[in-house]
Design goal:
The structure holds 2 protein chains of 2 kinds.
Chain A: H1 29-38, E1 43-47, H2 50-59, E2 82-86, H3 94-103, E3 109-113, H4 114-119, E4 140-142, H5 149-164, H6 189-195
Parallel strand pairs in A: 1-2, 2-3, 3-4
Helix pairs in contact in A: 1-5, 2-5
Chain B: H1 38-47, E1 51-57, E2 60-65, H2 70-79, E3 87-94, E4 103-111, E5 116-124, E6 131-133, H3 142-153, E7 156-158, H4 190-199, H5 208-213, H6 222-229
Parallel strand pairs in B: 2-5, 6-7
Antiparallel strand pairs in B: 1-2, 3-4, 4-5
The chains are: A alpha/beta, B alpha/beta.
Amino acid sequence: MGLTARPDSALKRVEYDPQSQDGWVTTRLDFLVNWGRANSLWPMPFGTACCAIEFMATAAADFDLARFGMERMSFSPRQSDVLICAGRVPFKLAPIIRRIWQQMAQPKWAIAMGACASTGNMFDNYAVVQGIDTIIPVDVYVPGCPPRPEGLLYGIQMLQKKVMSERMSDRVLRDEMEPDPTTQLYLPPPAIDEISEPFGNSINQTRSTP
Amino acid sequence: MTELTESFDVVSVGSALPNARPATTPKNLPHRGGDANPSAQALKQQFGDAILRVSVGWGETTVFVARDRAGDIIRWLHDDPSQQYDFLADVTAVEYRETEVPMEVVWHLRSLPYRRFLRIKTELPKDAPLEVDSVWSIYRCADWLERECYDMFGIKFIGHPDLRRLLMWEQYKEGYPLRKDFPLRGRFSRSEQLRQALAANPESRYSMEELTVAEAFSEIPDDMRRRLASGERTGE
């Protein structure tokens, strides 16, 4: 069986008139670029704790991250688009996640997966960073302890929506943030102190010196 | 640094017991009292006054020893053919809430040939320097255990070859986190903690000297190899 045309089908020859409006699709360049970016986000997995187990479940067959164009885990920061921080980040790891973020090429996004990466969770102690948004800019926070794979997928879809709404004319979105050269912080120190404030039960603990 | 011996004898558990049988889990152990580990009596005969007291709880024997003899006692337990405590399970420390109660350093020893467990404790009064002998020269596994104990409690192990912080980064300035006077959130504000953490160079945790002798030398990145070749000896 070859690919011969059936004798009864008089295949219509495609006529093309450059002056005609037929056969054309117009779109915005923004849409085209964002559509490509949003559907080929390569994740940089930064799994430090139990959230990474849920992240692996998300990537596995049942939930299948590949449906969102994310089938390739990029273990090289230079070839990845979205950093997914799954788990608590101790202060000792802070310079490492910062360096990985700085090594990622624009355009890049970050997802804080789980309560620890978002806020420090119950680890309101001397060793754990109170939310990775004090170290790197975060686009989507996924709540949960740990979040179920559906939660992460919802967060990824939110990120895709966010990517789709970007404008290329808005250069600020894709400018590399430069940390303060003396302190290496993105945020002013009072802001970091404020968003690191304890909440819930842990407000009963006191710090001995400011 | 002493050479590690290349040959060793395979020890089967309980092989030194006269009537070695498969081990059974002891049952109905009393909370306090009961038969002490025979090593406690042997220690009293060998070291006399250096053995302060012996207590038994849940069938496990704890021997409190004088601080300045702790290293000798553990070496004897390791070397003596009638003891053969050849496995160091843990080195840790205890601090009690009451400030006048001294801190304790705890060694968990296990004798595989005699199938015995012995807990050695020594007390460190808080008004004296927190120092005790290292057992690194006896058990190599004490290396990181003692480093962790130093990191968390600030206890100096005399004779340890490389007593650095293990869990916290080496430039950590806030003190010793498991001490009772250490506030849960640390001493500095969150922004200051973050600033200090970001100022730490991650590469500085790796010893360039160790990399030169490691088999991985051919696999390390080019820039590190170049810096090694130019004589740089630390990552900082």
